[in-house]
Design a protein that fits this description.
Layout: E1 2-5, E2 9-12, H1 15-20, E3 47-54, H2 57-73, E4 77-84, H3 86-98, E5 105-109, H4 113-117, H5 126-130, H6 141-144, E6 157-169, H7 170-176, H8 187-198, H9 215-224, H10 240-255, H11 262-267, E7 284-288, H12 292-302, E8 308-311, E9 324-330, H13 338-350, H14 352-358, E10 364-365, H15 368-375, H16 382-396, H17 408-424, H18 430-444
Parallel strand pairs: 3-4, 3-5
Antiparallel strand pairs: 1-2, 5-9, 6-7, 6-8, 6-9, 6-10
Length: 447
């Protein structure tokens, strides 16, 4: 497992070392954790804290630069950083959670946060907002709410908001004789767009991947069509009939040759900048909103003259089909230096200079002033500008806030893909696979 510490480089640590990697001391400052729900983070900002995040070398460099800025702005503060790749990060975090030795500022994502709130490991941030320690005045309410748990409390402050988009190879679309879907298009419009394009696409290309097993698209479909993804108990909120309808749509497209084959989809390299869309073999596909820049770079490197763009997910009777997937920092109950941790969370999210240094590396900046400053930067690439402007459009449409229940990451996503593969490879009917998935998911969710 890779750890990155500022000034020390990468260290490989054993399990015993992980258990000792504590939420570092802060000299017993007022507002320390561990004593109930009403910790407001007030007190002297001084002493040491540990900060944890996931990411590669580029994100580590930017995050460490922001940590340096935070130390310079707060004399007497020492902030040490820990990072790992995404999977390794959560493996380590679970060890630290079990030993109540979580770092004082822990990066989380909306899809994982309730794995930790369900064990009462995190402090609500609402008292810190009320005390003026953390400022949310420049963050849209719909974005702030993505950091809330099932009880309505805010458990992490989103600093970056990822979203999914429909990537479109406009060169292939032009060759197929189709125009981009109009503003506010729905799923019926999207299916028609794909079917029309499939008739005239160049040989060796397809309109879209075989996407019935992609949770991203399904989440978008449920939101646009007024389906409930999860109920108040953290179980599935949609019905077996809903899932049959959705998978049947994709199976009809696959049978008609509109999508990639099941075999080709199963063999596709992982990563949006390595898949078939990035290689010019698909006219469209779902991609992370911040993947436009790397996908464009891959296609440019091939020299085929392909141009790409991104558009929002299809809408529906209930409005936007785009959900936000935020990343932000939480403060564990075990933290003994809450004032300094809260000051860091606030600084990372709201400081203008820090935001320009981090440059929306992990989702679009949630602070509107930081985002506007990035957009005004003349050095900003056109693709990055489009990514950030599309985020603004999505937020303006008041995207739904999804509370992902405990167990979502481990239970829902892999099982959803596997269940649809059973259909695509002819091993189960749509009805059989839907029933099996719902039973399996409900057995593991919400606990």
């Amino acid at each position: 497992m890779k750890w990155t510490r500022r000034g020390l480089g990468a260290l490989a640590l054993g399990t015993s070392a992980l258990l000792l990697a504590g939420c570092s001391g802060g000299g017993g400052n007022a507002g320390g954790g561990g004593g109930g729900d009403a910790v407001d983070g007030t007190g002297e900002v001084t002493g040491a804290i540990e900060i944890a995040w996931w990411g590669g070398d580029a994100r580590n460099e930017k995050t460490n630069a922001v940590i340096d800025m935070f130390e310079e702005a707060n004399e007497g503060v020492t902030a040490n950083g820990q990072s790992a790749d995404f999977q390794g990060y959560f493996d380590r975090l679970n060890v630290q959670a079990a030993s109540k030795s979580l770092p004082c500022a822990v990066q989380l994502q909306g899809r994982q946060v309730n794995d930790y709130t369900s064990r009462d490991l995190l402090l609500p941030l609402d008292p810190m907002i009320e005390a003026g320690v953390i400022d949310v005045s420049d963050i849209p309410e719909a974005v702030v709410d993505t950091g809330r748990g099932p009880d309505g409390n805010l458990y992490f402050l989103p600093y970056g908001a990822a979203y999914d988009a429909v990537g479109v190879n406009t060169t292939l679309a032009q060759q197929a004789g189709v125009e981009l879907p109009a503003e506010g298009y729905d799923w019926d419009d999207f299916v028609t767009f794909l079917e029309d394009a499939a008739e005239n696409l160049p040989e060796g290309t397809r309109a879209i991947d075989s996407n019935g097993g992609r949770p991203n698209f399904f989440i978008g479909w449920t939101q646009a069509n007024g389906k409930t993804l999860f109920d108040e108990d953290g179980k599935l909120g949609f019905t077996e009939d809903d899932l049959v309808e959705y998978w049947t749509m994709w199976e009809d497209l696959r049978a008609a040759g509109v999508t990639e084959t099941a075999e080709r989809t199963a063999e596709e390299p992982s990563g949006p900048d390595q898949g078939y869309f990035a290689n010019g073999q698909l006219m469209t596909d779902t991609i992370p909103g911040n993947a436009l820049t790397p996908v464009t770079a891959v296609l440019d490197g091939k020299g085929q003259g392909h141009e790409v763009t991104t558009i929002p997910y299809p809408s529906g009777a209930e409005g936007s089909g785009n959900a936000l997937y935020p990343s932000g920092f939480a403060i564990p109950r075990s933290c003994d230096n809450v004032p300094t941790a809260a000051a860091f969370v606030n600084f990372f999210t709201n400081d203008l200079d820090a935001g320009l240094v981090f440059a929306s590396d992990n989702g679009a900046a949630t602070n509107t002033k930081v985002l506007e400053a990035q957009l005004a930067d003349p050095a900003l690439s056109e693709t990055k500008k489009h990514e950030l402007e599309l985020f603004q459009r999505i937020v303006e449409n008041d995207p739904p806030s999804i509370v992902f229940p405990p167990g979502y990451q481990a239970t829902f996503e892999a099982a959803f893909r596997q269940a649809y593969e059973q259909v695509a490879f002819g091993r189960q009917s749509v009805e059989e696979a839907a029933a099996s998935f719902i039973a399996e998911a409900n057995a593991g969710l919400g606990s």
